[in-house]
């Protein structure tokens, strides 16, 4: 719809006296708009201040009349009608109603601004320019716009439409759009409408207009864009059973879903005759007989949503095995074994009615064990670092003809006593050496490696074990890069592992002589101090102290390194008996006092030994004071401000005696500070807390 303004249609009006007086004589053109209306206007002001003109928007055309006052105030009104339609060569419905538009302008230095209001409650702003000074419309050809916009698209698709445009005067054209979709962008210099919708819906009444700034105007007919949801094909997955014995029920249902919630229909190709198939669920089921023995190949299950090509599972086969009498297996595996002290051994009983050769298999076999597929024997000699519970062990037998049988799943608990402290000197009754509790230390050396025969750990013992120093942050990288005696899987030890080497029966150095390269200064561990995270845990072999301090164990300090390889040593597993006020470690099989006195009672070292000997708690009277390694076994170095497992309810944030005497000075004994897990030694006359221990039944 091109707007061609021909002012001669309306005359110039007014009397001659005004025509010589009005200072605003001339031809004016401009635009008006709001969020749903876009239009253009033009009019002439004659010498008498009388106005005639025309306006056109995306709905109506109007014949304009009005006046310009000497002070620059301009009032213009217009009614939609046949005359206006004819002037701009547009065709409207005959019933235009009584739509009237009015403009109020102010003219200032050739520009004209103001507001407009239409009788159907539309209103907005308007502006324009003085185009000619003679009060007659300059020759102007209205722009023309055409094109057929795309009216449908699916979500995720790219929408793009640019209207065709033409202007005989080669004027600069300005495009506008009404009711633009939220997902679209509009270019007012080209009229391009583009975007990618993400959700379905309909945008209606979209109107693209163009004006040339000289009163020329055109628009495309209003159009709509319908966004349809893009179809997502269904998905199907699942692993069909590929072997079954005659007489057994077969059933497989694939999992399928459709993002658009479309109804799904299943299909199958290559279905064995003994199977039934559901097109509603995809279930494939049936019970074969011995007559169905054999393999059916290239079975394909597919699904469709009715809007896309079917999608399928990978082709599969189903083998029907001849029905035979299965073997049987029986036996009661041992549920526990003591690390180092015992060998685990279990041999199941198995038989087959058809005298087939039997083959055994195992699931979840402990890594310290070995298994015979010929006899089903499960054997092994766990080390201390193998302590823990190994669950879900299942031993099965097969006759090679589809017949199988399995034992019920069982668990094996590997317990591990603490390693002895190394103290053999007999100081007083009831002390460390009096009871001599724990596993004997045992080491062997090959090349530059010392193997701990109790934990199974292998330790670096070359010249660098006494010469290389790193800070806490770089020490792990050194171990990871270490290549020693054909091994490359070295790591920095945790604090439990490194302190297990301490021999409290020795001093300077408190380390077995099998180690030929040892420094008296501390060695780094992976331990991060829970009380002060700028400190790390280290072990000092000068006299056996494992400690951290501001000067000695700041993480930036340089310390020695001794790398290790093998299964990592873990913590105990603690359970509290509230009735007996005890805590039992299922790994070390130690039972600990945990009544109110364990958190409050204090004695000198000698009196503490006597207290534990006389203690009766939980129906037990065989209590004793723990040695230093037993006491260390309940320290939780990952906790601060009490460094002990939360199963313990009575713990003071202070020092607890051990029964181990300081080898360098028998006037002192070892203790642990359960505030942070640090150990020290001090004179035996000092008063510290006590927590007694006994061997669990």
From TrEMBL:
<dbReference type="InterPro" id="IPR011460">
    <property type="entry name" value="Lcl_C"/>
</dbReference>
<dbReference type="InterPro" id="IPR015919">
    <property type="entry name" value="Cadherin-like_sf"/>
</dbReference>
<feature type="domain" description="Dystroglycan-type cadherin-like">
    <location>
        <begin position="234"/>
        <end position="327"/>
    </location>
</feature>
<protein>
    <submittedName>
        <fullName>DUF1566 domain-containing protein</fullName>
    </submittedName>
</protein>
<dbReference type="GO" id="GO:0016020">
    <property type="term" value="C:membrane"/>
</dbReference>
<dbReference type="GO" id="GO:0005509">
    <property type="term" value="F:calcium ion binding"/>
</dbReference>
<dbReference type="Pfam" id="PF07603">
    <property type="entry name" value="Lcl_C"/>
</dbReference>
<dbReference type="InterPro" id="IPR013783">
    <property type="entry name" value="Ig-like_fold"/>
</dbReference>
<dbReference type="Pfam" id="PF05345">
    <property type="entry name" value="He_PIG"/>
</dbReference>
<feature type="region of interest" description="Disordered">
    <location>
        <begin position="116"/>
        <end position="146"/>
    </location>
</feature>
<dbReference type="InterPro" id="IPR006644">
    <property type="entry name" value="Cadg"/>
</dbReference>
